[in-house]
Design brief:
mainly alpha, 2 domains, 14 helices, 273 residues
């Protein structure tokens, strides 16, 4: 073997060794709390290599295994109910009744949102009411711990790893803090966006130069409309099951009963027939 051949041979061995070492050091998922701290250390190294800053890395270091998040992820029984059972359990009559009042209260905002994004008030208010009771309850779990736990958990590790990187980026940008509180799966704000959706679809609905889905109803509703538009919402088209805009509602939540409930409550809030 000549010198050039030997050089290429040893270079190939070196690259292969580095790849194997990287694979060995890569963060490995788990199914309980025992490996979480080791996974977190490995993930932190990967995140730093991808350019995540010290503020976000410190937030990740402070996370704890969120057992309540895992329990919630394993026990989503309400999505197995019939449509009528689901709507009764979620209080659809109350959401519609209060939703009509909020539609009148926020008429100017909702009109502006519909002009910009093509989404009428009904489905936005239905989502707002369904997700957080119109902003009254945003969750009680540490957002970063919840998302980190789900990124570590083997069941949906790949999906939530992307949302963990998004959450860390939001911390670097100052949109989230290490102490941010949200829903069990790391959803954020009045209409419950996952971190990746905040990055993709979050908009400044009140014109204050910030995106704050927690404190700003305008930001939350405008961002929700932006999400639906990005998922194919067509201005003026129907949004009941079988109509063109129902597909955009399907993009919001994968559960069929949830999709149907949003469409029906939205229709009643809009007084459409």
């Amino acid at each position: 073997m000549n010198q050039g051949g030997r050089a290429r041979y040893f270079a190939a061995i070196l690259i292969s060794g580095l790849m194997m070492a990287g694979a060995a050091e890569a963060a490995t998922c788990g199914n309980d709390a025992r490996g979480f701290e080791q996974w977190k250390a490995s993930f932190s190294q990967e995140a730093a290599a991808r350019g995540i800053g010290s503020r976000a890395l410190n937030a990740l270091a402070g996370t704890t295994y969120a057992q309540k998040t895992i329990s919630a992820d394993r026990g989503q029984r309400s999505f197995k109910l019939t449509l009528n059972e689901f709507m009764q359990k979620r209080g659809s009559a109350t959401i519609v009744s209060q939703g009509k009042k909020f539609k009148a209260q926020h008429a100017s905002l909702l009109s502006r949102i519909e002009s910009q994004y093509g989404v009428p008030a009904g489905p936005l208010i239905a989502i707002w009411g369904m997700e957080t009771g119109f902003g009254r309850f945003l969750g009680n779990q540490n957002t970063i711990s919840a998302v980190a736990t789900l990124a570590y958990d083997c069941r949906r590790s790949e999906f939530f790893t992307g949302h963990l990187y998004a959450a860390l980026e939001l911390i670097d940008r100052g949109v989230l803090t290490a102490s941010a509180i949200g829903a069990a799966h790391g959803e954020i704000g009045q209409t419950q966006f996952l971190p990746g959706s905040v990055l993709k679809y979050g908009v400044d609905g009140d014109g204050d130069g910030r995106i704050d889905l927690v404190r700003s109803t305008a930001d939350a509703l405008a961002s929700t409309a932006n999400f639906l538009r990005a998922h194919g919402w067509r201005p003026g088209a129907g949004y009941q099951q079988g109509e063109p805009n129902f597909a955009a509602i399907q993009g919001w939540n994968a559960a069929t009963v949830y999709q149907q409930a949003i469409a029906l409550m939205g229709r009643d809030i809009d007084n459409a027939r």
